[in-house]
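Question (not urgent): is this output format expected?
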Amino acid sequence: MPNVGAELASVPFGKMIYDMASAIARSQIALDKASIQLVKVLASTTFDYVPDVVEVLQPNPRTLKGVTDSQGNPIVITGVQVSTDVETAFPLTLLQAGVNPTFYAFTNSTIEVKMSITSTQESSNTLSVGVSETASANFLFASGSVSSHVNFTSSNKFSYSVTGSSSMSTTLAPVPPPKNMMPRFFLVNAMDPTKITISQS
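Got this back:
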């Protein structure tokens, strides 16, 4: 009879763990390289940034055509006129605008192995015995014979099956970019030359 313990011992757990860890390590390196490249793209890609859009609401009274009050005077309503002043645009990088690169890390890696082992055995025995007798007689003497037969049948049936399945899963989670990889921004307020201030972000 096959050994169930041997079947379980033959599952290559070590190789499965190594293959999964190796695949995660290679994927992590590829993701980090892609994120680093994204930092360069964000730092070099510019767009026209509009710092201010000023909307001024001014009264714009007008009369309703064909509508009068009880004394026949036209009705005046206070309309609104909107004037817009758009500040001059200047180039700004995507990184300056706050578009940060996304870094990822693998967490909660799981390997699951399932095995189903089925073993069945059936045996049956059959025994049959038969007896037959014959006799003859005449004037002087009599004779007879007895015969018997035995039939024995034995059968054994044995079945053994092993089925297995495995699954691997891992979670990919976003993480903040490394602090030393992101550039520092210095804002120099030179609007008033006599009061220059520098702020760091």
